[in-house]
């Protein structure tokens, strides 16, 4: 966990370590299968191409994670003179938490939400939507921003980025692998693509379980950290209730467009017609509110 004034969370640290170890093994195994299949199908040249692809993906998902996430939301980085109040809030929170200030971005969408992304606290970004800026009070927005900065300080956003990218690759191969392999006339080539297809299904399933196990816990951890750093958990609870209620009014088509970063959102981008709670990347609203109410009582918040 990053050194900051956010409260440490041993449970989060252990989960991040376990998920990172599991993802490392998964990535090595997945890469080995790809290299082996390409080598058997295309010789040394095929194996070399597969190795370049695997290493290129590993580097790309690490180095460009924040840029890709912002582009997927069509978000624009804003300077202090463009969003002075937003920057002032983040400046104050970063000073309280004793952490580097991330880039600040705004996405032009009515979906009320926010997210953090980046590979390290020194290379990160916090993005808010115009929808959340229009709906929340200053105190509520500060609570949301504290929550997002906690993700950056805890580095859980980095683990989630790597996990999500690996799952997306496996999902792509699962969807298109058989189609691509259908064009192979030789028996060995067809068998090789079948192996990649089956392994991709397993990788996607394991990646799904790993990301969900970490994602739900990290949201509770960020809620706790954000509530303690501001000392006003009731404002964070108010923002969470308001956003969750308004999310039901957003068209499903608009929510689907945010699929690439939905796991990183402050509140799940779901409505009643989306998916069941068992597939959600976030813990139940009631559980989050109950935790914030407990912290409020502990702090003696009026």
TrEMBL record:
Signal peptide (residue range): none
Key words, A-Z: Cell membrane, Hydrolase, Membrane, Metal-binding, Metalloprotease, Protease, Transmembrane, Transmembrane helix, Zinc
Pfam families referenced in this protein's UniProt entry, alphabetically: Peptidase_M48
Cofactor note: Binds 1 zinc ion per subunit.
Co-factor requirement: Zn(2+)
Family of this protein: Belongs to the peptidase M48B family.
Name of this protein: Protease HtpX homolog
Organism (species): Aeromicrobium alkaliterrae
